[in-house]
Specification:
Blueprint (H helix, E strand, L loop, with lengths): L2 H11 L3 E2 L44 E7 L13 E3 L6 E8 L9 E8 L19 E8 L8 E8 L3 E8 L7 E3 L15 E6 L6 E6 L9 E6 L9 E2 L12 E3 L5 E6 L6 E6 L11 E4 L13 E12 L2 E10 L8 E7 L3 E6 L21 E9 L2 E13 L5 E10 L10 E2 L7 E7 L7 E9 L19 E9 L16 E2 L10 E8 L3 E8 L5 E10 L2 E8 L6 E9 L2 E9 L2
Antiparallel strand pairs: 1-9, 2-28, 3-4, 4-5, 6-7, 7-8, 8-9, 10-11, 11-12, 12-13, 14-15, 15-16, 16-17, 18-19, 19-20, 20-21, 22-23, 23-24, 24-25, 26-27, 27-28, 29-30, 30-33, 31-32, 31-34, 34-35
């Protein structure tokens, strides 16, 4: 199905359209920074003065996506997935859960969407587009693959017939006209309650996989999945096939080779479980792999005092899952001390961030912040050959009510997770709260694209049991393109000492593939693609690069099947390899 056929299909299926404004669609970035609401304000009038109110401007770190509201708790378990970058053209898609009425957080909750075509310098929010224009909660974002490559898909739960999870797709990319797919069938055994807290993945065949949870004490938090291939109907919700019944959000992602994975985070019950499909979500592994046992013999020893917490994330490195897990120390006062782990089949558990190596972190006990550990909510990304884990930590600066402000930290690994650098404070903003980081599934070599929530007030006000002393305030979403320079000798790891062009993967591919390469000396580097007649069909790279290891993606969606040659040139160095596009 081509994109235009998909567009026609979606128009036929639409339940509701969410158009931007009343005068048709905007040109890309026409309305960037159009929102002029006063953002940096607290709701309680005693603290509002002209001096502490400011419109959208450049934040301390990054840029604002123009998405802003009064809802300050972005996840009900698992990683927040609020940003995706299209590897074919670099377009950036961002979503954010917000409330527009400070006196009615629940009923005014919506999903905001923003779009950038210039690496996040400016943003188009399509006149404050909401997806959908009715009450919705806890959205997640993915980009579709295969014949629908690059189209953004948003899933959230909202009121249809009761509260249900459903999916919205924008076609063509960047139109800002999201069409709502029909909702999946209801789950008979749950009565009126339906799956909520959805995740959505775009498998390599162009289909959509959605996972969600039943939030009911009578049926303990079944985790379910469904799939659509025609965008008209979904398969029946199917329970994940093991006894681990978990609620909340659990990350679900697809790679380019037909695999779809889900990381079930059981927190206080059964640890972490890994489920995988190798046929684009059509069928799944019968038995789950337990990633994190929490009872003896425990994670490391029988006397280990840590257990899994709600934050977790993973990425696909080819066909290999690499995971970031959050832990909670059971012996800490108020159970609010955490640490961050990396896990892969090759490395086992590796500690990335804890109270010892995270600078200026608050050592528990913390006042009234039981819904956030002092270290937690990790997300994991890859840039070239560098792994990056970003997490939030409560720092020593406090508000007048005694609540600690949060900062974001990151650590990097140059050897696929075996060892990690000392954590670096990414935001470093005293008396300003940053939480809920989200990273793109794809990133170009040299950068990691991420978003987070910025808040003038620490703590979480909008949850059912607000943090002690937390005050309502307007939050806003920040975008940042984190530079990941090549590792130096002093940082450890390996330094490039020769040029190298690696074989693309996957190979054969459809329609995209990745190419890793190494630059031994700073200078102009180009990578071009040719057909067998010697005609140039694509320029993947032509720029000055520093010494280091990088990765580039080739999208052959517009080319016919066949054998192609890609060639790297850097000074006197030249190397070519063949690859096969098979549609």
């Amino acid at each position: 199905m081509t994109r235009w056929l998909l567009l026609v299909c979606l128009m036929c299926l639409v339940v509701t359209f969410a158009f931007a404004g009343s005068g048709g669609k905007s040109n890309p970035l026409q309305n960037a920074h159009v929102e002029t609401e006063q953002l940096f304000d607290r709701v309680d009038a005693t603290t509002i003065t002209p001096d502490n109110i400011s419109p959208f401007s450049r934040p301390v770190v990054g840029t604002y996506t123009t998405l802003s509201g009064y809802y300050d708790y972005q996840s009900n378990g698992g990683a927040v997935q609020h940003i995706q970058v299209n590897p074919a053209n670099g377009n950036i898609h961002a979503i954010y859960m917000l409330s527009e009425d400070s006196a009615a957080f629940a009923t005014s909750r919506r999903t905001g969407y923003a779009f950038s075509t210039d690496n996040g310098t400016t943003w188009n929010n399509f006149n404050n587009l909401r997806v959908p224009s009715r009450l919705s909660g806890f959205p997640t974002l993915t980009l579709l693959k295969g014949p629908n490559a690059g189209l953004p898909a948003i899933a959230n739960h909202s009121t249809i017939s009761g509260t249900q999870s459903t999916t919205f797709i924008d076609s063509p990319e960047g139109a800002g006209a999201f069409s709502e797919l029909n909702a999946p069938p209801t789950v008979a055994l749950s009565g009126t309650l339906q799956p909520i807290w959805p995740n959505v993945a775009g498998p390599s065949d162009g289909s959509v996989v959605m996972t969600a949870s039943l939030n009911t004490g009578a049926i303990p938090y079944f985790f379910l999945r469904t799939r659509t291939t025609d965008f008209a109907s979904w398969s029946n919700w199917e329970q994940f096939p093991d006894t681990n019944r978990q609620g909340g959000r659990n990350p679900t992602y697809a790679n380019d080779n037909g695999r779809v994975g889900t990381l079930l985070n059981g927190a206080t019950t059964a640890g972490a479980w890994w489920h995988v499909s190798t046929n684009n979500g059509e069928s799944w592994s019968v038995n789950a792999q337990q990633i994190y046992p929490i009872s003896p013999p425990g994670r490391e020893t029988a006397t280990d005092t840590f257990r899994l917490w709600v934050g977790s994330d993973f990425l696909w490195d080819g066909n290999t899952p690499l995971m970031a897990l959050g832990e909670q120390n059971l012996t800490s006062p108020r159970n609010n001390q955490g640490q961050i782990l990396f896990w892969s089949q090759a490395t086992g558990y590796v500690v990335v961030g804890n109270t010892t190596n995270t600078p200026n972190v608050k050592v528990p006990p913390m006042t009234g912040q039981s819904n956030h550990l002092n270290i937690g909510w990790p997300v994991i990304a890859k840039s070239g050959n560098t792994l990056v884990i970003v997490y939030q930590a409560m720092t020593n600066d406090t508000a007048s009510n005694g609540l600690n402000y949060g900062d974001l930290f990151y650590s990097r690994s140059e050897n696929n997770g075996v060892t990690w650098s000392a954590p670096v404070n990414l935001t470093n903003t005293p008396n300003l709260d940053e939480r809920f980081p989200s990273v793109s599934r794809w990133n170009p070599a040299g950068f990691v694209n991420l978003t987070w929530q910025e808040d003038p007030e620490p703590g979480s006000y909008v949850i059912a049991t607000p943090d002690l002393g937390a005050r309502p305030s307007r939050t806003r979403q920040v975008f940042y393109r984190l530079p990941i320079p090549p590792v130096s000798v002093g940082e450890g790891g390996t330094v490039a000492n020769s040029f190298k062009l690696n074989q693309n993967y996957p190979n054969p591919f459809n329609p995209s593939t990745k190419i890793d390469y190494t630059v031994a000396q700073a200078g102009l580097v180009s990578i071009k693609v040719y057909n067998l007649l010697g005609q140039e069909v694509a320029t993947l790279l032509n720029e000055n690069l520093s010494r280091g290891s990088y990765q580039v993606t080739f999208d052959g969606a517009k080319l016919p099947s066949g054998v192609y040659v890609y060639k790297m040139s850097a000074g006197s160095y030249q190397e070519s390899k063949k690859m096969v596009l098979m549609k």
